[in-house]
Amino acid sequence: MERSKQKQMNESENEADSAINGHFDGRVKIPGWSAGGAAGTPSTAPSSSVMESWREERTRSLEDNEMSLPSIAAAYTTILRGLGEDPQRQGLLKTPWRAATAMQFFTKGYQEKIIDVLNDAIFDEDHDEMVIVKDIDMFSMCEHHLVPIFGRVHIGYLPNKRVLGLSKLARIVEIYSRRLQVQERLTKQIAVAITEALQPAGVGVVVEATHMCMVMRGVQKMNSKTVTSTMLGVFREDPKTRDEFLTLIRS
Amino acid sequence: MEYQKAAELNGLCNGKIVTEYLCRNGFSELTVDAKKVAVQHKNETSRKEAEDESRLPALEEAYTTILRGLGENTDRQGLLKTPLRAAKAMQFLTKGYHETIYDVLNDAIFDEDHEELVIVKDIDMFSLCEHHLVPFFGKVHIGYLPSKKVVGLSKLASILLLILFIAVQERLTKQIAMAISEALQPVGVAVVIEAAHMCMVMRGVQKMNSRTVTSAMLGAFREDPKAREEFLALTKSA
What we know:
The structure holds 2 protein chains of 2 kinds.
Chain A: H1 2-13, H2 15-21, H3 49-54, H4 62-82, H5 95-106, H6 114-118, E1 122-124, E2 131-142, E3 148-158, E4 162-164, H7 166-177, E5 180-181, H8 183-198, E6 202-211, H9 212-215, E7 226-233, H10 234-237, H11 239-250
Parallel strand pairs in A: 2-5
Antiparallel strand pairs in A: 1-4, 2-3, 3-6, 6-7
Helix pairs in contact in A: 1-2, 4-5, 7-8
Chain B: H1 2-22, H2 28-43, H3 49-69, H4 82-93, H5 101-105, E1 109-111, E2 118-129, E3 135-145, E4 149-151, H6 153-162, E5 166-167, H7 169-184, E6 188-197, H8 198-201, E7 212-219, H9 220-223, H10 225-236
Parallel strand pairs in B: 2-5
Antiparallel strand pairs in B: 1-4, 2-3, 3-6, 6-7
Helix pairs in contact in B: 1-7, 3-4
């Protein structure tokens, strides 16, 4: 507890640091919920760092977007000039603004909080078989080259008296993928978000994606795909459950 | 001054489109222009590699501004060198400004008594959309009817190196066709590009599976429907 309080104090200065992409220590717990689980005051309650990242503050708002648009557009104009193009020619006249708006759209995950998306759609249901939502299209931005990543996400979980509205799984994917991301971190964040929201018996997340930074430049391998997965709870411990999940997402 | 060069490079094609429409034969005026074009291209590469290096700091700063504007913390580990990497990636994706058709094709043109259709299809291509600076990628099919001169096959694919710049798909198709017709003076050239635009897939209308197809038919392919049919049939087959 002490450590996490201290961490909070350190983090309040560097809030952007851990809150944005939820840097974990690698510990994954299923924390005890306070009754109600309302969107309370996150930063004052002592909680694990995993909880803090889940209940993170929105780091961007619509007003922020509007205010930063001119500077991002100016940066794009500089980039066009730096590449040897003429920003005044007809096709490029409004490009800095369009590119800036597009970039803000591709990182709109920073404007949303999991808790807003999930709060209403958790239901008590006496179902303890695997629930899978697969082939969720995912688009993200590579944080190292600022080039798109796209692919599919497959999510499965074993509910423990509580199920989640199905489209909410896709919304969780949207929130975490519309950011500057690393595929490994994306997979983990999705799994942890579901774990924290539902406390299921287990969660499995598989992300299969094509990285344009590998396809368009560098090694230029057209057909390569990167697959990452996170298995938590029963999925990690019981090989049969994991097998069932992997078979069902293949079919 | 440099901006003018770039604009000319991109605008050069538009001037030619006009002359081409006016010209019955398709290529008679262009053959006269070809030499002028060659000299122009050699003198006017709007970016050289040394310049790339010197421009890098400005691009890096611009990217840092963008990252901050998006609400990110540019001091975190994953983003420390991102402005540099992104600037280099962008320079790579626009290095078509360096290249000229003559660099790519010049040596590999051979005299061959072949007058049938030659097609290189399913060439993967990438480019950057001029309006959103977001990639679009897909396949290019190139076909030409040689007139005593054939080109090394991989050179048709290397033409794709020329097109790494900020582009509009329609203009790009035409530019590829023009480049080949300038260099080879064939009886006809046909280029088809089928691409997925990330600006449509990742944002805006968000249609995952839509593809944009554009084509440019010059010379015999434009005039003779049978030649065109043969080209399209051969590029369709799996």
